[in-house]
Amino acid sequence: MKQVITITIAALLLAACGGPKERAAKKSAQLEADSMLAAYHYSDSIYAVCGRIDTAAFGEFITRAVAFAEAHPQDTLAPDMLYRAGIGSMILAKSAHNTVSRAENSKQALAIFNQFQEQFPDHPQARLCYWQRAIVYDDILGDWRSAESEYRDFINRYPNDSLTPVFQQYLTLLGKSESELEQMLDARR
């Protein structure tokens, strides 16, 4: 009887730890995630410190992060990688020097944030995808109607969220010119 219990415990431990192939796959995924994080931090630090965009580095990170999230959806880093890929696409769109690149990168950012919500609907950052899409529409594309739709979707879906009052305020500012915004500020003083 003792032998049966020992064998059962050993089998359970081996199953829990996974075999050599599973451990190698986990290690490979972890190395890939670490490499992607380093690539993201490199790209983002150049942007934050120098104000310069390394479009090739951001582009490579985005491609790898999307592929990683699709290949390893159960990995705890997959949502973070995908979300950062969306942010990277926004940065590329915002800094684009022509309308074609701006539109392509904006479309990619919107698609990534949609994918995030589909793939990780219960993740805390899923709710922020509405906000990121609204920023793309408003600040990058100048499409205030679509931005308004994103803010309203957030407000309707998360009426008690701490961001809801902020987004309600944003709705009053959408599409206003600088002079209209100045008049609104003067009226409040």
Describe this structure in words.
By secondary structure, this protein is an all-alpha fold. It has a single domain (about 20-175), classed as Serine Threonine Protein Phosphatase 5, Tetratricopeptide repeat (Alpha Horseshoe). The protein contains nine helices and no strands. Helix 2 (about 20-50) packs antiparallel against helix 3, helix 5 (about 100-120) runs antiparallel to helix 6 (about 130-140) and helix 7 runs antiparallel to helix 8 (about 165-175). The longest helix is centred in the N-terminal third of the chain and has 31 residues, at about 20-50. The N and C termini lie far apart (about 85 Å).
CATH level-4 homologous superfamily: Tetratricopeptide repeat domain
- Write down the CATH class: Mainly Alpha
Shape: globular
Distance from first to last alpha carbon:
84 Å
The CATH topology name reads Serine Threonine Protein Phosphatase 5, Tetratricopeptide repeat
Please tell me the overall pLDDT.
84
How helix-rich are the residues, as a percent range? over 70%
What is the CA-based Rg, rounded?
Answer: 22 Å
Largest sheet: none
How would you spell out the order of helices and strands? HHHHHHHHH
**Residue fraction in strands:** under 5%
Poorly predicted ranges: 4-16
| Count of extended strands | 0
Q: Judging by the overall fold, what is the CATH architecture? A: Alpha Horseshoe
**Distinct helical segment count:** 9
Structurally, the number of domains stands at 1
Q: Given the helix and strand composition, which structural class is it?
A: mainly alpha
